[in-house]
Write a structure and sequence with these properties.
Elements (H helix, E strand, L loop, with lengths): L1 E7 L9 E7 L5 E5 L6 H9 L6 E5 L5 E4 L11 H12 L5 H6 L15 H13 L5 E5 L7 H16 L3 E5 L11 E7 L2 E4 L18 H13 L6
Parallel strand pairs: 3-7, 3-8, 5-6, 6-7
Antiparallel strand pairs: 1-2, 1-4, 8-9
Bound molecules: adenosine-5'-triphosphate (ATP).
């Protein structure tokens, strides 16, 4: 799949979010999308998923079965979890993700109404519907946020399985969990472009650094460090 010279802005007169941005994704690849806050990561993911159309440029060879999980699951819908998953599977013409709900530890949620779910549980519903049907393209916006440790570990395994089957996985991931998946390529969205980021050396042991700085500069430094792939809490 290929995005070539893609430019996008939400409205005429708005600043361009992406400008002549290109990205090549081979079958079986896992791409982590990084970048400072508000730089266009979610926009890029929606463009790749086909939910937004480039204003200029083109996206080609997109796999037929696409799974997309947004950063925030829209839980204000009058369905139970089971009914929602059945409905989405029918709309997408894929199988109901029964095995996946067990793997994500959400079988006990199936009878609950979507608006009654906690944020983490609602997030799992979004993931389960995206993972249904063995997607050839899996787009995940901050998939690990709000998940319990067991579900986080299982999701990494599922992502690796999708890639091993030849699927393309593209995800933003502030938490850094995706890096446990072998062969992840990191890309940074910055100034409207997409560039391959410096690879993280997984074997390099992590250390914790305490930094004291003026409060007013903390957010900007945290964003910069996250964009470089560091864990910041
Ligand atoms: N629906 C929308 N309408 C208009 N502008 C939007 C819309 N969604 C996002 N934007 C703008 O597009 C730019 C990129 O936003 P986007 O959400 O893609 O960034 P992001 O890198 O995912 O941010 P974050 O790290 O905070 O999640 C921002 O300036 C944002 O305000």
């Amino acid at each position: 799949m290929r995005a070539t010279n893609v430019s996008f802005r939400y409205r005429r007169g708005d600043p361009w979010v992406l400008s002549d941005a290109s990205l090549d994704l081979a079958p079986g690849s896992v791409a982590e999308i990084t970048g400072p806050n508000g730089t266009g990561k979610s926009t890029l993911l929606r463009l790749l998923a086909g939910l937004l159309r480039p204003v200029r440029g083109r996206i080609e060879e997109r796999p037929a079965v696409i799974g997309y999980a947004p950063e925030r699951f829209p839980s204000a819908q009058p369905f139970t979890v089971a009914a929602y998953l059945r409905h989405m599977a029918a709309v997408r013409r894929v199988a109901v993700p029964e095995e996946l709900t067990a793997r994500l530890g959400m079988d006990h949620l199936l009878g609950q109404k979507l608006p009654d779910l906690s944020k983490g549980s609602a997030h799992k519903v979004g993931l389960a519907q995206a993972l249904a049907g063995e997607p050839g393209l899996l787009i995940l916006d901050e998939p690990f946020a709000g998940l319990d440790a067991t579900a986080r570990a299982e999701l990494s395994v599922i992502v690796a399985e999708v890639a091993a089957r030849g699927g393309i996985v593209v995800a933003s991931d502030h938490q850094g969990d995706l890096r446990s998946v072998p062969g992840v390529t990191r890309y940074e969205v910055r100034d409207g472009k997409i560039a391959e980021a410096v690879p993280i050396v997984v074997d390099d042991p992590l250390t914790t650094l305490t930094i004291k700085l003026p409060q007013s500069k903390a957010d900007a430094l945290a964003a910069r460090l996250r964009a470089e792939g560091h864990e910041v809490s």
